[in-house]
């Protein structure tokens, strides 16, 4: 049995390492494609790129593992079946479940390690690579400028520099088109560029330059004698020289991620399951308090409820004088009978109706705003719940995909990178589509976060059971004997 364990693990280890590496390369390429605009042509050092890819790779490991487990299990059992080694093991009296026991134990250990990795390592990795992306997009604003060519990344401006690196440039030319009535050009010998503290403005600290402003062509003007004072192509202009100046540009049209380590370190992607639980409890308490305060505020805004509140004030002590105040006495004096509109004069009725309409509209607007706030709050709370269940569902998916791939490899009896790759790609596509659907349904509130994250596993478990029964009894997936066997719960007839 020890030889079987070593043989099984050796047969599984090779394909697993290869497929895991291939999966990681594919996922890293996908990440690079998404952030290609931030990474290419920005003069980043090799060290920064390597550090970024290192942290990104750590965050992608749990995504590559399900595909690697699925593909390697199909290849391993496919190779055993193709070389008749699986048949020989069965002929010796070993069942498929006994043959798969060493691999099952190995996959369970991988799933457990994946959970701890995604719970403790990935949050840190996500925080690190988000911080690096922030540094590229936010801090190094000088990367917006490419020496020798115009940069139009910021709406309303065309900026050209002759030379420079980091945040210091020489031969700066700025064309400002933000005001359609004025053509403004700024030229400077040198300058430094940096970002405002609030992240809304790009600032140029310029030295030794000129500002040339030219208005649009003015309408022709005539003297009293009818002679033209100036023609219609006259353009008023002025030129100003400076030794030092600061030019401010609003960052419109250049969408940057306004985030740093302090801002998103408490985001749901940066927390482990224990921290997520604490965050969920805190959000729930905050939501309950906001709803309670909103209800109390609306109740206390009504004169009747105000009078009831004042009526409960103590009759002795510091509150006695407050209780006896004239305005409080007015609030406490509740009419002995109901006041109807018919008992009021026409002007009083109009005033009462208008006051009621204004009050109703105000309450409606307040209620709508509160509803939007609560919806946003619940969406945020749902994201924490989704991330909580995702960490567990990922480990469960690894185990289930193994029990889908292993019997499937025994059934198709094909090893290598031919048929197993095609089959694994199709199955993983099904898994990924189910995962995306479940996540979207959970975020929209159609499904609970639990069922949204466990949807792929719940769908794949019956498939895994059918394939395991078929492989254990040497039956085809579409064999009538298999379905008769399943419908009779394994009883022989």
Automatic annotation (TrEMBL):
Record-level GO cellular component terms: ATP-binding cassette (ABC) transporter complex
Pfam families: LptF_LptG (PF03739)
Transmembrane segments: 12-36, 48-81, 102-122, 392-412, 419-438, 450-472
Principal location listed in the UniProt entry: membrane
Membrane topology label: Multi-pass membrane protein
Keyword Transit peptide: no
The keyword Cell membrane appears for this protein: yes
UniProt keyword list: Cell membrane, Membrane, Transmembrane, Transmembrane helix
Protein localization: Cell membrane
UniProt name for this protein: YjgP/YjgQ family permease
Protein species of origin: Fluviicola chungangensis
